[in-house]
Description:
Blueprint: H1 3-30, H2 64-91
Amino acid sequence: MTIIDHSVKTIALLAGAGALGLAMVVGAAAYDGTNCKAPGNCWEPKPGYPEKVAGSKYDPKHDPKEVNKQAESIKGMEARNAQRVEYFQKTGKFVYDVSKIPAAN
């Protein structure tokens, strides 16, 4: 293969790659999949889906006890972290397992 054949092949390959990249960018920018009423307000209910979910058959009706489980676990996590920080400030050693902190027992 001569140098000219090699350079023509390389130029054709680069041109094809550039055309493919340009087609992908133009295609991605052309449609974003939403019909927004205003910037940031793009939610559209499907046909038959109510405008307001609360009180409809689609309302999940969450149990308050289940919803509060995460808040309670976060409070416990913060309490454990406070014990770790307090022990670290006193001794300079970080202990992950709170049950191994002498003050916690």
